[in-house]
Amino acid sequence: MDNNKIETLSTVRLQHSSELYKIVDTLNRTLKDNDLMFGLALDEENEEQAIFTIYRT
User: Rg for the chain (alpha carbons), in Å?
Assistant: First the structure.
């Protein structure tokens, strides 16, 4: 696999919470050496929904 390529492993939509970023931050800090990265974004159409994504780097 190309070293510059990021692979999406999973995406899930959930109700947004102001503290979700803490989980994403902890996962990124803990699992970065396992070539995993985690993302969190607000749904552009519904800001009460968050999109959590797991990537392989």
Answer: 12
The single-letter code of the amino acid at 18 is S
List the chain pLDDT tens, one digit each, 57 residues. 556 799 999 999 999 999 999 999 999 999 999 999 999 999 999 989 999 999 999
Category of 35 on φ-ψ map: left (φ > 0), alpha (ψ -120 to 50) or beta: left
Full-model pTM: 0.86
Kindly list the distances between the CA atom of residue 3 and the CA atoms of 26, 35, 57, in Å, as whole numbers in the listed order: 24, 11, 8
What would the two tokens of residue 41 be? Answer: 């974004």
